[in-house]
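F.,

This is the one I mentioned.
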């Protein structure tokens, strides 16, 4: 992706500068620096930033490697890299993305949850039935404890 520089805003600058756009961010501490993510938070309200995992097949498993489009990918310290060291996706799940957003960026849990649920639903044009807790909305819920650990999930209202 083209970088944001002083004379050429690139894709990032163009997206952050357009009020009507919803932007995806990967809050894993590797893809984008926390300082850069804080700049994005200054440019956009939580409703216009959606958490993205860019998750690879290793997420949720003990696998320390996998093959992606014929390339061997190694998982080390939460980063998926090919043999040349190029980032090839993340080892990030959405619950950790929410926790990182709270811990690394200082975003209130309510705003981080909105970035994980409402913003993607709005981006997909589904905010009338997903992304918030409201009558008539699908009950896909995640319960977390005080340490931001997942304690339960419901899909369509079923535990």
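My design for it:
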């Amino acid at each position: 992706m083209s970088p944001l520089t002083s004379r050429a805003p690139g894709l990032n600058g163009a997206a952050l500068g357009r009020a009507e756009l919803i932007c995806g961010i990967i809050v894993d501490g590797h893809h984008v620096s926390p300082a850069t993510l804080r700049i994005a938070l200054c440019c956009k309200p939580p409703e216009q930033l959606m958490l993205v995992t860019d998750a690879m097949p290793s997420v949720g498993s003990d696998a320390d490697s996998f093959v992606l489009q014929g390339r061997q990918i190694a998982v080390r310290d939460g980063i998926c890299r090919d043999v040349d060291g190029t980032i090839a996706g993340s080892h990030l799940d959405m619950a950790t993305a929410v926790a990182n957003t709270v811990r690394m960026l200082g975003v209130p849990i309510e705003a981080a949850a909105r970035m994980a649920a409402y913003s993607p639903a709005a981006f997909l044009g589904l905010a009338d039935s997903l992304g918030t807790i409201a009558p008539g909305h699908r009950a896909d819920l995640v319960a977390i404890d005080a340490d931001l650990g997942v304690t339960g999930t419901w899909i369509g209202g079923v535990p």
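The CA atoms of residues 22 and 123 lie 7 Å apart.

Talk soon.
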